[in-house]
Amino acid sequence: MQPPLHRRQPTPDNPRVQRTRGRVLTVARALLPEVGPTGLTYALLAERAEVTRQTLYRHWPTRAALLFDLILEGPDVGGYPERGGDVRTVATAWLTSLRDGISDPATRTAVLAVIAQSDHDPDSAQALVRIGQDRRAALNGLLEPSGVQITDDEYTLLYGPVLARLFFDRGEVTDAFIETVVTQWLSTLEREGALPRGGAGPADG
Q1: What is the per-residue pLDDT across 83-110, written as a single tens digit (0 to 9) for each?
Q2: In whole angstroms, what is the distance from residue 76 CA to residue 67 CA?
Q3: What pTM was estimated for this model as a whole?
């Protein structure tokens, strides 16, 4: 069975392939805020990264595939959450990491581009679904020690307010805003019986 077009796995045991792939992503990340999604053509990217267009298509058969990797393999902003039994602590660290990651101009541009293209481009729509699935699975991995595993709807209720504040309100996501979102989210999980007794962790202050 062929892998989805928007997510072709690179060869993990070939250092040369990995170096090329990493160099291309670095160049694409620098170019994207400058030229925008439509300006990031494979011709320009191949020229700047000093590779052939055939090389680009082997790694990323579609533009959505490239944007997908730019989103999920963004720069290291530090502070990635650790696994833990305290749901509040994990969720707060998760949202903080999300906020910091989207503060990267290339990641932010790539997210907006995939969202904008998803209504008319099947590859972008599929990439958007995969991003959500990937991130929810990663969060559930961090939550495993707590015994809590969240559904698609519960995941949306957690990250939705942060993306709304950033992309629609064009406002700042402060630590206080994140704390409020997490508190409201935990209250919802408690009402639904999705949290073990005492599993939310203490509120700050």
Answers
A1: 999 999 999 999 999 999 888 899 999 9
A2: 17
A3: 0.79
